[in-house]
Design a protein that fits this description.
The protein is about 50% helix and about 20% strand. It contains six helices and seven strands; from the N terminus they run H-H-E-H-H-E-E-H-E-E-H-E-E. A five-stranded mixed β-sheet has the order 2-4-5-7-6, with helices on one face. Strands 1-3 form a two-stranded antiparallel ribbon. The longest helix has about 30 residues.
Length: about 210
């Protein structure tokens, strides 16, 4: 409750800081000063994204169980939504996305949150000009990328809260994405497992189908 309250209270001043930074950016022509306004805008957006993740995590942790009513969720439709919202990031790295036809019986909103976080993580570490692969088979959903492997020392820690690995060309992440996915898997009575492949990483989200 305290985390939720504090996070909500911080969002308004952060929005004001970002807005002021954007106004200053438009008014300043000196390149040596523009980089400071760019930094204000960039860092305030990073903080805003972190607050959104903290709110989502707090909401999940307050749930003792999911609603009894589950939905048949078409995974390809969720992937399409994610692609639309991450278009510029995908284009920047020239990434393709491959997804098979598959349906999972799950609580729709939390499954969407889990899949979006898995895809964001895969995109973050994917090599340029490669393909992200999403597959549904039985009660398992896998997201796979081509990129650096997870170091052995980190394999058992990547789902810990605030634990994150550096990704080339990216800011340090919040370390909450995979934690939320693991929490969602647990709420569904399932699991999240990350493994290294021959040329990348595979995340397997298992949700028992009733």
């Amino acid at each position: 409750d305290n985390v939720s309250l504090l996070t909500h209270e911080m969002k308004s001043p952060l929005a004001a800081i970002r807005g002021a930074g954007e106004i200053l950016h438009d008014e300043i022509s000196d390149p040596s000063l523009t980089r400071f306004t760019d930094n204000v805008i960039h860092e305030s957006q990073r903080l805003s994204d972190l607050l959104d993740r903290l709110l989502a995590m707090a909401k999940l942790e307050k749930l003792e169980s999911l609603p009894a009513r589950k939905s048949r969720v078409t995974i390809s439709a969720l992937v399409e939504d994610w692609q639309s919202s991450r278009y510029s990031l995908l284009a920047e790295k020239h990434l393709e996305v491959s997804v098979n036809d598959g349906v999972l019986q799950a609580e729709a909103e939390t499954l969407k949150l889990a899949l979006f976080n898995l895809l964001d993580n895969a995109l973050r570490f994917a090599n340029a000009e490669t393909t992200l692969t999403v597959q549904v088979e039985g009660d398992s959903l896998t997201v796979e990328n081509i990129g650096p492997a997870i170091p052995d020392y980190a394999l058992d820690r990547v789902t810990e809260r605030f634990y994150s690995l550096p990704a080339p060309g990216h800011d340090k992440s919040s370390g909450l994405g995979l934690t939320m996915v693991a929490e969602i898997a647990s709420l569904h009575g399932g699991s999240l497992i990350l493994t290294n492949t021959n040329n990348g990483v595979r995340a397997t989200l298992t949700i028992p189908q009733n």
